[in-house]
Specification:
The complex is a heterodimer. By secondary structure, chain A is mainly α. Chain A contains 13 helices and 2 strands. Chain B is built from 16 helices and 19 strands. In chain B, helix 8 runs antiparallel to helix 11, helix 14 packs antiparallel against helix 15 and helix 15 packs antiparallel against helix 16. Classes of the chains: A mainly alpha, B alpha+beta.
Chain lengths: 328, 527
């Protein structure tokens, strides 16, 4: 078990190193940060002065080695745009993104499970057809359009919810939370729904397909033959068995929720990491881009590791194969 | 709830100042200031905020006229000396008194290597304290622009900067955040209350500001600045009343806002001209099917392009009427602007353009690649697309290469271009800035630093050089006009239009729009 974790962690380091190496070669193509950092009338000497100060004239491999050397000491450099240490900038923005992703994942699960079960059980009911059609809209409309539509309806026409920002946040230690104030909670609703919609439709369709699959199996027929109530059959036996793939997919999708958050955060001016990253790209703020990419790589690696460990714990067959393998 | 808190805070502020009714103004620009340091980052969004907190010796009113600010009077005492009398009794936000030491310190700070405001002090040799309220600015050559330049050199407290280890503007090599990035101590009408970069900056009224007595109608006690990057979200927030004002209304939404209840629009000409540029200096274009010669080196071809590009169509279709056609390289707001130089712009005429193409020996045209930014100027890429279509009519087959400004400016900065679109603002509001940087022969100094055309005219260069030391305004204005006319005849650039600024305000808000897009909250009133 320990050897497995160590091996995976070693793999994780290699993944993160390759991600940052690839991003450093890409940074040569995103443009010149010096141009955004100086005024239009800065002289060539002034531009060169900053370029030398930042080490931008050095070859990409050297810049990469320097970045890794500092990063292992927890120093991701200073943001070119805001003149602040990157790790502090990310620590300021991380809570916004994590709260948004958490609420979106909750919305997706809480709505998708009953809808998935319902449409799986009553495939031909008109209501199921309505749900499925709506879910098609959710899958096919791009996130930014959904966000703008929600803003138009709930902020401009109805005036119920704020169109942008996090509302009022409360500091709990270094963590800033929007959960503790009414404005903070109201501000979460629109972006969370926007972000959740795609996941919601995905999970709903997954559960529906799994339910239909499971309902055909022998043990369900047997359960019905035993005269168990519909409720016990549908939820106690059928749904339970659909949940294993659903949990796996949901877990993995949290990574893509973080990724999708870039668009949602931009539309709602949500001060999270995705928005930070997008502005960093526009400014060619290389330290922020590098740190963000490494962090996202870490999130994906960590989630995969947890999922693997869960498999290991949940699926007895994996353990047996491994122990016999070790015995040979 | 939040409203209640804000009101309570503002009421407290009023209790202290004793007179003004508490009003909050919520301001939503497109982007945030990069820093609160007044000498570090010379860009609009940054100056828009620092100018509320820090003051310069002189200032500009909403019509860009130069007025006294921290200096009460100024005069040239010798060809290379400007003497400033300082305003007595002014205090910094931390209570320290303002005096000549602070001015000398700030001018030197603005001249530092890591300062981006050096451009306003490049002729300054030193600042000399004469007495506590008098400072001499000594220049290397006679410089008529010192008053204009000293509207941008903002004054910091010497003792405060020294105590916080911030005697130099931000150093990008540093591992530590400079204190002045998030803290400020000026003499201005507003005090930096709180700041979260990209999220929210709160400015509160400086009740002790010297200028309030002249502005009895001003009643904004608190300004909440929340940048909103996405244009649709910004407008939604304005329509839903979550913000009171924004200085960035996209042209395509102007009509819709005009029809909206509770919102009003302000409009003015921005000090920015948009133009096309040719690589006319190379012996062969980098991106063209013409080999062995450069079609743009021929004045006939440049004239043909000028006749083929229909700026009126661009104004009405692409810019939705929100631009002013031009035929010169400076904009309204620049001191020497003369509308008569715009009036002589030739009308679009395809037949005439084709005649010039034939005269140049390209009756069947040629192909060329055009570089264009797609996130810098108002509808920049759409303008370029329109130009591509118009030039196709005279046989010039243009491949459009549109890209974000982060890659565009380094590319054209290396002169890696044959044909491009550029916009130009003038922070000094003096034509010399444009003539020197855009049109003089490139020589490694500031001369021709942005001249990517290869244009070089000895007569023009001599004229612009003489401008720098000419102290007689009328003689100097005549030189500017002559230089602009030379450019009109030689056509290294084809001026298209002046940009127009549109601000969106909620009905209860009143504030003057300024051609440099800078809000001046002390002139705002909220009913």
């Amino acid at each position: 078990m320990l050897a497995f974790v160590v091996r995976r962690l070693f793999g994780a380091i290699i993944v993160m190193l390759s991600v940052s190496a690839i991003s450093f070669t890409l940074f040569n193509f995103v443009g010149d940060p010096v141009n955004s950092m100086v005024g239009q009338d800065a002289t060539m000497e002034q531009r060169q002065f900053i370029r030398t100060q930042l080490g931008l004239d050095d070859p990409a491999p050297l810049q990469f080695v320097r970045f890794v050397g500092r990063a292992v000491q927890g120093d991701f450099g200073m943001s070119y745009r805001l003149g602040m240490p990157v790790e502090r900038l990310i620590a300021e923005r991380l809570p916004a993104t994590l709260e948004l992703v958490f609420v979106a994942a909750m919305i997706a699960l809480v709505v998708a499970v009953p809808l998935g079960v319902y449409t799986g059980l009553y495939r031909h009911s008109p209501l199921s057809k309505v749900f499925l059609t709506l879910s098609l809209v959710g899958v096919s409309l791009p996130t930014f359009l959904i966000g703008i539509l929600l803003i138009l309806i709930f902020a401009v026409w109805l005036g119920w919810l704020p169109a942008f920002g996090r509302g009022q946040v409360v500091k709990v230690g270094w963590w800033s939370t929007g959960f503790l104030t009414p404005q903070g909670r109201a501000a979460l609703i629109l972006p969370a729904v926007t972000l959740a919609l795609f996941q919601l439709t995905l999970i709903m369709r997954l559960i529906r397909a799994e339910m239909m699959e499971v309902l055909r199996t022998d043990y369900i027929k047997f359960a019905r033959a035993r005269g168990l109530s519909n409720r016990a059959v549908n939820f106690g036996h059928a749904l339970k068995n659909t949940l294993v793939p659903v949990i796996t997919i949901t877990g993995l999708q949290i990574g893509s929720l973080v990724a999708f958050a870039i668009v949602t955060e931009t539309v709602f001016q949500w001060p999270g990491m995705g928005f930070l990253f997008l502005q960093a790209i526009q400014f060619v703020d290389i330290p922020v881009m590098a740190a963000y990419l490494v962090l996202v790589a870490f999130v994906f690696v960590a989630i995969n590791l947890v999922v693997d460990l869960l498999y290991y714990a949940v699926d007895p067959r994996l353990r047996i194969e491994r122990s016999t393998g070790a015995g040979k | 709830m939040k409203r209640g808190l804000v009101c309570a805070g503002a009421a407290l502020a009023v209790g202290l100042s004793g007179a003004v009714e508490a009003k909050t103004l919520r301001w939503a620009p497109q982007g945030d200031a990069a820093t609160m340091d007044p000498h570090s980052h010379n860009a609009g969004p940054t100056t828009d905020l620092t100018a509320q907190i820090y003051e310069a010796l002189l200032q500009r009113d909403p019509q860009l006229k130069i007025l006294p600010q921290l200096a009460t009077e100024f005069q040239s005492t010798s060809p290379t000396t400007w003497r400033f009398k300082l305003r007595p009794g002014v205090k910094f936000h931390n209570g320290a008194a303002f005096n000549a030491d602070d001015v000398v310190f700030s001018v030197e700070r603005a001249m530092a290597d890591s300062s981006q405001y050096k451009t306003f002090t490049n002729s300054v040799v030193r600042a000399v304290k004469i007495d506590d309220l008098t400072v001499d600015i000594v220049t290397d050559k006679p410089n008529p622009l010192i008053p204009a330049q000293f509207t941008e050199v903002r004054i910091m407290d010497k003792e405060w900067s020294e105590a916080n280890n911030a005697t130099k503007p931000q150093n990008f090599n540093a591992r530590e955040e400079t204190f002045t990035v998030r803290n400020a101590n000026g003499t201005g009408p507003y005090v930096l209350g709180s700041r979260q970069p990209d999220v929210r900056t709160v400015l509160t009224r400086n009740a002790d500001w010297w200028g309030w007595k002249d502005l009895p109608r001003s009643n904004v006690t608190e300004v909440v600045v929340t940048p909103i990057a996405n244009a649709a979200t910004r407008l939604a927030a304005l329509l839903s009343g979550e913000i009171d004002a924004t200085p960035n209304v996209p042209v395509q939404d102007v009509e819709r806002l005009r029809r909206s209840q509770g919102v009003k629009l302000l409009q003015t000409n921005e000090v920015r001209v948009i133009f096309l540029g040719f690589d006319m200096g190379r012996s062969e274009l980098l991106y063209s099917d013409v080999k062995g010669k450069n079609p743009f080196a021929d004045l006939n071809v440049r004239r043909a392009v000028a006749y083929a590009v229909d700026v009126e169509a661009i104004r009405t279709r692409v810019m939705r009427g929100l631009s002013v056609n031009t035929w010169q390289m400076i904009s309204p707001g620049v001191a020497q602007f003369d509308a008569s130089l715009d009036a002589i712009r030739p009308k679009a005429n395809i037949a005439e353009a084709k005649r010039y193409m034939t005269a140049a020996g390209y009756p069947n045209g040629f192909s060329v690649t055009m570089d264009c930014p797609n996130n810098r100027y108002i509808n920049d890429e759409q303008i370029c697309q329109a130009v591509v279509g118009m030039l196709a009519q005279i046989g010039i087959r243009v491949t459009l290469n549109a890209m974000p400004l982060a890659t565009y400016f380094p590319k054209i900065g290396n002169r890696d271009t044959s044909f491009f679109l550029l916009g130009w603002g003038v922070p000094t509001y003096d034509a010399h800035y444009s003539l020197q940087l855009l049109l003089q022969t490139t020589d490694g100094t500031a001369n021709g630093q942005w001249n990517y055309t290869g244009y070089s005219s000895a007569r023009f260069d001599a004229l612009v050089n003489r401008m720098t030391t000419e102290l007689d305004t009328r003689a100097r204005d005549a030189m500017v006009k002559e230089a602009l006319q030379i450019a009109q005849n030689d056509l290294p650039y084809i001026p298209l239009h002046h940009q127009v600024l549109v601000w969106g305000l909620r009905q209860p808000v009143d504030m003057p729009i300024t051609p440099n897009n800078q809000p001046r909250f002390q002139w705002a009133t909220v009913r």
